[in-house]
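Weekly sync notes, structure subgroup
Attendees: PM, AL, DS (notes)

Item 1: joint prediction request from the bench team. They want all two components modeled as one assembly rather than separately. Inputs as received:
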Amino acid sequence: MTALLRLEQIACIRGDRLLFAGLSLALARGEALWLRGPNGAGKSSLIRLAAGLLRPAAGTVERFGRVALIDEAAALDAELPLRRALDFWARVDTVDGHTVDRAMAAMALHPLAEVPVAMLSTGQRKRAAMVRVIASGAPIWLLDEPANGMDDAAQARLVAAIAAHRANGGAVLLASHFALGVPDLAELDMGALA
Amino acid sequence: MLIALFWRDLRRAWGSGALWLPVLFFLLVATAFPFAVGPDAPLLQRAGGGMVWVAALLAALLPIDRLVRPDRDAGVLDQLAVRGVADEVIAAVKIGAHAIGFGLPLLIALFPAAALLAQDAGRVETLATGIAIAVPALAALAVLSAALTAGLKGGSAIGGLLVLPLAVPLLIFGAGMLDPAGRGAVKLLGAVSLLLTMIGPFAAGAALRGLRE
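Output from the run, pasted for the record:
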């Protein structure tokens, strides 16, 4: 099996606190891993390490393919209508409008296409960020609390999107403090590492 | 993709109306100056050229809290980094967009400002040439200080102080072009502007990288 993401003997220090050390994980095509644990266990830090936004204090991070990331910031221009804000990232990712359309349909966001991003609720903004991830076409998804503020229907769509991505040979690293109900999911309890 | 980034920066600069603030500030200084020193035309003409340069520099530094910090807070810089866009490239695009977005209106505003300061046609031409040469360097300094201070609270106040020493050569040679004896000033201004514009993306890129740690 070809690995898309491989972390070996990673250590992470934030401030002067050692969050975790000697952590290794690998994600192959079609695999998903749930990072669970209480607040402050290092879930977000591990996601940022995997994304290359943080440098590990020790160990190596290897990515074999493009990465799509959700974190607490939606990175959508607040003054723009949702569709235009998403189109900006579509241009950056060089994907066409149909791909964005399909991704918006997957998250049921078409009714909000003309609404300014500033007017969206937390859950709607998470769905919009999810559209960006789906439309990017990147094989490696790094999702940091993607379901925060989402209602049950939106969570079901998120779970379906993750399943579709895995069926297409993508890998998902999912950080969440609660269970999302993703089937066939490996777990890593960050709370037990400290 | 770079074009998309460039247009986004330009749209945000012009669309929000915040861009006209530095230009308005520039005109305000030019309007206030004659009231402060009196309507003595020869004096205004002699001092006004230097005043235009000071106002242009301060106007360039005025919007620095808008240039990088909103993108950092919204996660846009992280998203670009995840896509493997080099920080130097982001900085270069931001410098280019700021140079166009702020430089063009500034050059237009220069003409009424120069009239208010009793500058004759020859001096207006010299001023316009000098400021056009200096605009990329001013933009580079603004983006650099914006990147350096994006992680600090109340950073924009420090930002101006940070790059002021770097901007002094621009002021000296830019205003020096107005002196009939300062014939080499335009070449030196060009050299300083080129140097700052070349260093800008690398220095600002390093500062952007530092924001993530």
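Discussion: Chain B has a mean pLDDT of 89.
Action: AL to compare against the crosslinking data before next sync.
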